[in-house]
Amino acid sequence: MLPWSRALRPAGLLRSAGPPRAGAARRARCGPGGRGAALSAGPDLRHFLRGAAAGQLPPEREPEPQPQPGSAPGPGKVYLETYGCQMNVNDTEIAWAILQKSGYVRTRDLTEADVVLLVTCSVREKAEQTIWNRLRHLKVLKARRQPARPPLRIGILGCMAERLKEEILHREKLVDIVAGPDAYRDLPRLLAVAESGQQAANVLLSLDETYADILPVQTSAGGTTAFVSIMRGCDNMCSYCIVPFTRGRERSRPVASILQEVRMLSDQGVKEVTLLGQNVNSFRDTSEVQFQSAAAPGLSRGFSTVYKAKPGGLRFAHLLDQVSRIDPEMRIRFTSPHPKDFPDEASVLQLIQERHNICKQLHLPAQSGSTRVLETMRRGYTREAYLELVQHVRESIPGVSLSSDFIAGFCGETEEDHQQTVSLLREVRYNVGFLFAYSMRQKTRAYHRLQDDVPADVKKRRLEELITVFREEAARAHRAMVGQAQLVLVEGPSKRSASELCGRNDGNIKVIFPDTETEDAAGCRAPVRAQPGDYVLVKVTAASSQTLRGALLCRTSLSRAAAAH
After folding, report:
1. Which residue in 475, 505, 507 sits closest to 491, CA to CA?
2. Contact of 83 with 157, CB cutoff 8 Å
3. Which residue numbers delimit the MTTase N-terminal domain (predicted)?
4. How many H-runs (helices) and E-runs (strands) does the chain carry?
5. Among 266, 250, 267, 394, which residue's Cα sits nearest to residue 310?
6. Strands 510-514, 547-556: parallel, antiparallel or unpaired by DSSP?
7. How far apart are CA 43 and CA 225, in angstroms?
8. What is the pLDDT of residues 343-377, one digit of tens each?
9. φ/ψ (deg, to 5) at 79
10. Is 421 within 8 Å of 466 (Cβ atoms)?
């Protein structure tokens, strides 16, 4: 599962009329449940709570910007903010692609906006509280709106919209539209209704919507990395997880549309793509008739599932193979796989080992080190089966970087269960970790069947212990890289020093190095300076649990570095 985020019809509420549409998918990663820390060294960090995108409230008397003379008439300017997981980043891009076609103009200045849309997460209580706090700020902005301008329309999109539609619409009557993850095609209609002064909502979940026919508009122009959603929803029904109730049943996007998007990103100069889904290695494209008779994959000893395996369709190994062939200079990652779907997917591990542009990095979400707790969570594996998988992965992909998710203080967790999780962290020694205290979510199996009986102070203490152990072991793993040359994709200037650059290595660990002139491995005689999107070799000189530091050796290419390895 990716680490992260209906109701009655009130009087006067306009609801979507019309059946759910077929379509496509984009990004995901939704996580466990609770407050905690994302201890990450990779794009997986984006999978956790993002702050508001720019835009401060204007001073009381500051004049609001007026339309420019000669500007084209249209529905107005839209301001988008993204919170939560990587899937929400992609949902933002889908929503913007739909609105752009309807004539809306994008603004990054909150004071210019006619429409403010918040793409939300509902996986943890803290994520939802962030949105409520943001809405209080927007209420002030709405009240200060100049009478000569159209009323400011505010919308809540995504998982929180799906979970709390009624409360969102009724609380202080601030929100004008509510749209769930499968209702983005309806945004132009919902906004038109809101323009007439009514509230509008569509939170219908679809069994087939993947937004396959909509190419997302990248919200970070000129970026070196991008996320491509390959599926939506989840069928695993882990007892703690809200995702099946906010994003619906699992459905996969057609391979052809995914390849089209990746080719487009390659043409735009993107150098790293992450394939996203709640459970990517259960990907199953049934859009092509000739593949519908394929047998369902089996599970290895120690793994089980709550649903019957579905036959037919093109599987994840086929997709990964095809995506990796598009551009030899584009790195490919994927997240989040489920451990139960790896054992018989040996071809996936083989592809990672063989293809120089598929990163030697895997996210293996454990959630707990206790077999008893794993059973209560309905994870479908034991501690022993998980450790056998880790061993198999490391034998298949030498030097692989591993990341994981953990929940502290799940229902019924004893001190002995907690210590088993501590020992798992020490035994596996992950490079990247996402650790959170459990927060119960309504609608989940845990909410209906279990007791949230671990006191908050105990959850906090256990979480702090897990974080400490993770950092100790990650630091040891990273110190083993000191003296080695790492291939790094340059992302841009370091946030802490204008004289340094930062990027990520193949294992998704952040690498910091001086922004100095260097030679080019292609034989260019003149010294060069590394730019975002360049591959460089960096000799590691120091390491911590979060980052590597090193000296810049040269600029190179993905293919050239692989050939020299």
Report:
1. 505
2. no
3. 76-196
4. 15, 25
5. 250
6. parallel
7. 9
8. 555 689 999 999 999 999 999 999 999 999 999 99
9. -115, 125
10. yes
Domains contained in the chain, CATH given? 77-202 (3.40.50.12160), 225-480 (3.80.30.20), 484-563 (2.40.50.140)
The number of angstroms, rounded, from the C-alpha of 483 to the middle of its chain's C-alpha atoms is: 32
Check: CB of residue 109 under 8 Å from CB of residue 65. yes
In the chain, % of residues over pLDDT 70: 83
The CA-CA-CA angle for residues 7, 194, 162, to 5°, reads: 25
**Start-to-end CA span in the chain (Å):** 34
What does the pLDDT look like over 233-242, one tens digit per residue?
999 999 999 9
Cα torsion through 365, 369, 370, 375, rounded to 10 = 10
Q: Which residue has the tokens 């990672």?
A: 352
* 104 within 8 A of 98, measured Cβ to Cβ: no
Span 79-104, mean pLDDT?
Answer: 94
Q: Which of 160, 168, 124, 158 is nearest to 441 (CA)?
A: 124
200 sits in which H/E element: strand 200-202
Q: Report the DSSP beta bridge partners of residue 520.
A: 555
Cis peptide bond N-terminal to 336, omega within 30: yes
Distances (CA, A) of 172 to 149, 195, 538: 22, 18, 54
Provide the angle, in degrees to the nearest 10, between the axes of the packed helices 415-428 and 456-479.
10
Among residues 205, 202, 204, the alpha carbon closest in space to that of 194 is found at 202
- Token pair 């290695």 in the structure block, residue: 281
The per-residue pLDDT of the chain, averaged, comes to: 85
Do the Cβ atoms of 88 and 126 come closer than 8 Å? no
pLDDT at 74: 67
What is the token pair recorded at 487? Answer: 């291939």
pLDDT tens string 456-513: 999 999 999 999 999 999 999 999 999 999 999 999 999 999 999 999 999 999 999 9
Q: Where are the alpha helices (DSSP H) in 343-444?
A: 346-354, 371-377, 383-396, 415-428
